[in-house]
Amino acid sequence: MDNSLRDSGQAAIARCVSAVMRSRHAVRAFKPRPLDRKLVEDVLQDAAAAPSGANIQPWRVYVVTGTVKEALADALLAASRAGSVPAPAHFPDPLPDVFRARLQDFGARYYESLGIDRTDAAARLRQSERNLSFFGAPVGLLFTIDRRLKSHSWIDLGLFAQNVMIAAKARGIDTCPQVSFAPFHEVIATQLQLEPCEVTAFGMSMGYGNPHAPVNQVAMPRERVRDFARLVGFPEEHAGR
Ligand SMILES: Cc1cc2nc3c(=O)[nH]c(=O)nc-3n(C[C@H](O)[C@H](O)[C@H](O)COP(=O)(O)O)c2cc1C
Hints:
Oligomer: single chain
Strand content: 5-15%
CATH class of the domain at 26-89 and 132-215: Alpha Beta
Bound molecules: flavin mononucleotide
């Protein structure tokens, strides 16, 4: 452990934050237990501590539950089945090899946990559609941003969303961030009466995860620090961590 942390209460805080960050996983099966409104508001207020360029705080979030969530999910599913939504293109084609390998690894682990054969297009589509009903979570969130802003401000929105997930996890609440909502902006805009300047960036499922669901037991691997970071100018004692 870092010397600066060893002799202070800071070490306990670091362990706590680390445990919360490392225990957050994308959860895709939820208990029916509802979420208290105050709890959600507390999570969002914590998340609003996120930094943003020049403190412009560009995040907007719509939180839906109950019949409003169900009506939205119904409208999204209807649009999906009507084929009225353009096919999502979340990644460039071709995807560089290093990313394609990780994407394929994700797909293999994900569909195996669901007992879905990767060649079974119908079963994959059904699972994909479950995104649109927030995987059965009691609460759904839609994150929007002013479409006039640049990619710089979308970073702020991502930081805010990560804060939402960590603040939720610290309270025992699980989440799944979902870009799957982005292609459905028009439907979402109509259902939630968004302002014309807003664009839907992504959504999120939120609730108490079902720990017994196999889909919630998939651990997605991460690269080691030495594989994605280059530390220069430090003494060699930490090399190779
Ligand atoms: C911006 C973003 C969009 C995502 N979109 C989806 C999605 O639409 N559907 C889904 O099931 N998971 C989605 N995920 C979850 C990722 O698949 C997941 O975070 C990744 O596989 C790592 O797993 P972990 O979060 O459990 O550690 C998304 C994650 C991020 C950060």
